[in-house]
Amino acid sequence: MRYFFIFLAAVCLGLLLPSSNLLAQTKENIFLQTGPKSISTIDQFSLQFSIPQGEQMPNYRFPEINGFRKLGVSRSKASNFENNQVVQTLTFTQYYQPNAPGSVLVPMLELEVNKQLFRIEPFVIQVVPGLEKKEEIASEIQVPAQVDLTNNKPFFLVRSDVARPFVGQAFTLTMSLYVPANNVLELSFDRNDIQIPDLIQQIRPRNCWEENFGLQVERVLQVTFRGKKYTEYRFFQASYFALDDHIIQIPSVRLRVLQGGKSKEKTPLYLNSPAFRLQPKVLPKHILSGKVPVGRYTLQESLDHLKAKTGDYLTYRSQVIGDGNSILWDAKAVASDYFLSFNLLATERSVFPRRDQMFGNKSDIVRIIPEQPGKFALANYFSWIYFNVDKERFDTLRSQFVITVQGQPRDRKLDTSLEKGGIYEAIESQDSLQVHWNRWVNWRQLVNFVLIIMFGFIVFLFWRASKK
What is the C-alpha separation between 87 and 106, in angstroms, rounded? Predict the structure, then answer.
């Protein structure tokens, strides 16, 4: 009988082990979300997934959607506080641009994350016509002198949107093929899946921090150069932040396309991009140089109440958005003082493409508890220092809110408001002058009184003995 129970235990253990491995493989909590299913032609549809932050970046593959073009992938990092513990998640969002208005039936989609397939049930996207905005690239781009626009021929170009960035300031590189609207050549791409990654490696700066737009297919745009219309086929786009003032060399690279129609034999056509260089400007000497973002920033903030009583809970939300390197924002929480207490509820740092630039967003949600009555300017607590590239000096964004607090001062060393039903509940509101004989301080006084009487009696005995 004993061997039977041993055998039964071994069988049960063998059955349990596979289940344990299965739980370990599906332990990741991956959440999927789709964007609005009613958009205009100038808006974008999105698919995103969130995953707990690990030691390595996840491997993922977003699906293709018929009738839409894949744009960039944005990513964000969020930290939330649950049960006094920090829970960090990463969110990746793929954007899709509709090709034309109409009702698009999207079949079942498969999103792959860390070799796991997640299926999204079929749905319909309604795309309505939107007011198209003309690209104002002609006034922003300096066409190199080597590019001749008079011959109405296609040309290949790698360009930067900033000619002389500051150290730490974002500059965006794009690599594109430009074909004139009245082009008579019949062109087609030649193994872009092989040659484009090689060209990207050649132009990628080495001494810069990179934020990639994640273009997986060419992005087609309608642009103008000096009044002439062109179709732009953008193959690569990324924002860079120079880490030092060393010269950045962008070499000339060659794109190979095929010319010739279906009835003609296709021959290769080679287009060379002009080489250029960038010379980053050094920041003014300052203790914060290299420690704060460089760029253009704005502050968006909200506060649920401007008037409160001591002990109330206020929720303050802040968003600092700009084109600088947002990872340099100080992650240190606001310190509480005698007047206000602060508790960081959630924080998020995200990087996302906006038009032709990469933007960073630092969002915080903070609980504020007033401890003393009075007026308190939040500018004394919430401020963000950065280097303003327009003013060419260090600048500070400060909160504009002023809190008016009424009520009695709170004893911050003793707060039993959360002690429901405990023996210490509301003990700080008791009058300390109302003493009872069971208090230790009264027993101590009684013992001292008895000792004094005994000491006096002993002195009396010595005095009486000395008289005899």
Answer: 34
